[in-house]
Amino acid sequence: MPANYSGTWDIVDNENFEGYMVALGIDFATRKIAGMLKPQKIFEQDGDSFTVKTLTTFRNYSSSFKIGEEFEEITKGLDNKKCQTTVNWDNDKLVCVQKGEKKNRGWTHWMEGDTLYLELKCEDQICKQTYKRTA
Ligand code: 1AG
Hints:
Layout: E1 7-15, H1 17-24, H2 28-34, E2 40-46, E3 49-55, E4 61-66, E5 71-74, E6 82-90, E7 93-99, E8 106-112, E9 115-122, E10 125-133
Antiparallel strand pairs: 1-2, 1-10, 2-3, 3-4, 5-6, 6-7, 7-8, 8-9, 9-10
Keywords: Transport
Family: Belongs to the calycin superfamily. Fatty-acid binding protein (FABP) family.
Domain Cytosolic fatty-acid binding proteins: 7-24
């Protein structure tokens, strides 16, 4: 039985989001707006099938994937790039690799009780986000 991430999660900490956005090539003005946001994650999970929505007052992002199945991800409204993306289980962690123009791009999610962690990496930058379950 895989871990179940289903639920609603609100951000409580966001470390080095600025460095991550610089590595992605996001312009200054967009970074200043994005850095103020308090994203909410909505996970919908059915076994190995996921839809993850990241909601903010500025822009929303949604990604749907099945574990182990590579898909073409267009990071629309983020850095607007095309990636060949795969998400796999590492025990109960979700490990995503985003192959494309940027080296070392991907993210990892894991849970500890009602806390959800997300590490986003791009090139030499790591952003560490923490979320608390609200539903
Ligand atoms: C993601 O989460 C990315 C979700 O895949 C958004 C995370 C970071 C934003 C990425 C780059 C910033 C680019 C532009 C800034 C503009 C708007 C910011 C909007 C913030 C969120 C929509 C991993 C996983 C689900 O949870 O895919």
